């Protein structure tokens, strides 16, 4: 019952949904042909075939160097693995405004979810990874020397709490402002 958005490799197999759902009613115990499905392909090949009018430029939030702007596109697809069709999903494509760094995602969210929201969720990974890197450098999240899971859990919990404490201090004090230089560090002029 949970929705997900998952990054996938370019080789992930899919069948694009090319039109409206079939209009022929299902008959019990019989197969129904689907004329709305494209030929099986990979999600990477589908991304290369997207037209320029399918891409939307969206600002998904603020980053450390200003607004984070990407181009996004989406396409309804069916999962295709080992010759078997899977569930109906939405493929989400993200790239830089210059067309570089293509990222590919699949989501089981309903078709009505806005592309901006899907883009914001897809781009949160950067925030989480940046937070872990910062916590490793500031409070030693990665410097554990334990012999069991219990000790590891204790170390990680304390390191994350220390990182949260430092983050709250930065927010309360207004970021990276440094105080005036301490004149006591200069050499004394008296003998």
Describe what you observe in this structure:
The protein is an alpha+beta fold and about 190 residues long. The protein is built from 4 helices and 7 strands, in the order βββαββββααα. Helix 3 packs across helix 4. It is elongated, with a radius of gyration of 25 Å. The N and C termini lie far apart (about 80 Å).
Strand content: 25-35%
If you average the pLDDT, what whole number results? 83
Count of extended strands: 7
Radius of gyration: 25 Å
Instruction: Report the total helices.
Output: 4
Helix percent band: 25-40%
What kind of sheet is the major sheet? 7 strands, antiparallel
Low-confidence stretches: none
**Which structural class should the secondary elements be placed in?**
alpha+beta
The H-and-E topology, N to C, reads as EEEHEEEEHHH
Gross geometry: elongated
**Quaternary structure classification:** single chain
Terminus-to-terminus distance:
78 Å
SSE layout:
Layout: E1 5-7, E2 13-16, E3 41-42, H1 43-48, E4 56-63, E5 66-81, E6 84-95, E7 103-107, H2 115-122, H3 124-139, H4 149-173
Antiparallel strand pairs: 1-7, 2-3, 2-5, 4-5, 5-6, 6-7
Helix pairs in contact: 3-4
Task: Based on the model shown, name its key terms.
single chain; alpha+beta; elongated
């Amino acid at each position: 019952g949970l929705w997900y958005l998952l990054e996938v490799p370019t080789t992930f197999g899919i069948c694009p949904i090319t039109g409206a759902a079939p209009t022929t009613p299902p008959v019990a115990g019989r197969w129904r042909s689907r004329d709305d499905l494209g030929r099986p392909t990979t999600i990477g090949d589908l991304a290369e075939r997207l037209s320029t009018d399918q891409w939307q430029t969206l600002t998904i939030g603020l980053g450390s160097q200003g607004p984070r702007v990407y181009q996004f596109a989406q396409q309804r697809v069916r999962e295709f693995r080992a010759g078997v069709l899977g569930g109906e999903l939405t493929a989400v494509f993200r790239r830089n405004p210059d067309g570089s760094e293509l990222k590919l995602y699949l989501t089981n969210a309903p078709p009505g979810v806005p592309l901006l929201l899907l883009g914001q969720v897809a781009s949160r990974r950067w925030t989480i990874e940046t937070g872990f890197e910062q916590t490793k450098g500031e409070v030693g999240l990665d410097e554990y020397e334990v012999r069991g899971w219990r000790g590891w859990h204790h170390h990680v919990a304390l390191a994350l709490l220390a990182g949260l404490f430092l983050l709250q201090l930065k927010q309360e004090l207004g970021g990276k402002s440094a105080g005036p230089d301490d004149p006591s560090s200069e050499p004394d002029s008296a003998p």
